[in-house]
């Protein structure tokens, strides 16, 4: 029985660790998304001029210095890096949370089975003492 308890504790600790890693990866992905969003709404500064934010720029006029498309390179790269991180983080967190819930469910089932066995044993003893009289 002690081996079962030790295994269950180890299993839950590993699941909590994986859930923590999943949350950390999700936070990193969110940081990249926030950074990319900020780059899209903050005006671009260059040594020659100050340009509108790439995400808010008026696309009817495309000046050589401001809207060459290079200003969108870093935000696109950040989003491209954040997407697989977000998927990985969500998968890690979800799998670990599910493992924890299943371990809790299994422990509850075992507790119910144990209490049912005790109740059956108690009823069996009570039935035998009544038959003897």
Topology:
Blueprint: H1 2-41, E1 44-45, E2 50-51, H2 73-132
Helix pairs in contact: 1-2
Architecture overview:
The structure is a single chain. The chain is mostly helical and 133 residues long. The protein has one domain (2-132). Helices cover 75% and strands 3% of the residues. The chain is built from 2 helices and 2 strands, in the order αββα. Strands 1-2 form a two-stranded antiparallel ribbon. A hairpin with a 4-residue loop joins strand 1 and strand 2 (50-51). The longest helix is centred in the C-terminal third of the chain and has 60 residues, at 73-132. The radius of gyration is 30 Å and the shape is rod-shaped. Residues 116-133 have a biased composition (Basic and acidic residues). The chain crosses the membrane at residues 21-42, 70-93. Residues 108-133 are annotated as: Disordered. Keywords: Membrane, Transmembrane, Transmembrane helix.
Question: How many DSSP H or I helices?
Answer: 2
Average of the residue pLDDT scores: 82
What kind of assembly state do the chains in view correspond to? single chain
How many separate structural domains? 1
